[in-house]
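Q: Structure tokens for this one, please.
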Amino acid sequence: MTTILTINPGSTSTKVGLFDNDTALFTEKVAHAADKLAFYEGLSEQLPYRRDCILEALGAHDVDLAKIDAFVGRGGGLLPVDGGTYAVNSTMLSHAMKAANGVIHPANLGSQLAHEFALFADPSHPRPAFVVNPPDTDELCDCARMTGIKGVYRHVHLHALNLKETAIRHAASLGRQYEECNFVVCHVGGGTSVSAHRKGKMVDGNDIVGGEGPMTPTRCGAMPVVEILDLIEEGRSVKEVRKMCMKTGGFTDLLGTSDAMAVQQRAELGDAEAKRAWDAMLYQVCKEIGAMACVLGGEVDGIVLGGGMVHSNELVDRIIANCGWIAPVTAYPGEFELEAMAAGALRVLKGEEVAKEYTGIPVWQGF
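A: Here is the predicted structure, written as tokens:
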């Protein structure tokens, strides 16, 4: 029996899961009071409060931390890395605390919480702590990095954890290894990632932090640069425009709501504005899928869909209608993030993989 605790911090809650090998013993969404979180100025200052909330939840399940073999946190705040499972070290903790990649996100707390629990379980013999395929996973091919401005290169932030786990599971359903397949893999939710996976490497995808890709319920998606410059010249602040890339764009700006299912229902009931926004979002997702199929030279073993919005049958049907000619489309509604973290740690604990070292040196440093 190998017991693994997984920790996935979100904006107002932290998802935790206890696994025996790859079987979930339980999962729980631990809520955090908004007024408590607002009390802390910096993200890392929330750590003791979140830790204590999680400890209380674990206590309700009679979890003995001393009997847990490994702790896994959602990665975040790191400089670009190759995909895989990384042992938490002092460099990683330092980078997560200061958001070395410039992105302030609750995921940055993942490695810190895993480290805290590993020490808490047995201070004299700390358990191993890991992160798996953090959002800063960067396996881009050279052509995907280039832009038309000298010295400016593309970097990606994607739902790497769920994208890779969904691809691994889909490959297994085909009786194959992930490293043998070419997939276009999408995570469609509050943020949408569309990525090309060639033989186990995520060689291209949209930067969900940088404003690339389809619009989403809270993100503006790709925009012409000159239009953004016009907004700034008209008086919008750079800070305000940045927020449109992550929090206040998409349906939120167009329709005043980030509830995608509500937008779909409005569209179905004849709301022209909602239908136009819904149709445009699906159009953009399909366009990105086509682009990633071209990255793979048309050799696509499957189009794989994950994320919360994939619960919408209408969304899946629309993607099948528009992209099914490229390759078979398979939907895995929701996410496998807790399962993916447990699976990554388990591969290391079983000796199937060697845990990688986070050096703080970007995986790509220029041509």
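A few notes: The chain has two domains: 3-133+338-357, 160-334. The radius of gyration is 20 Å.
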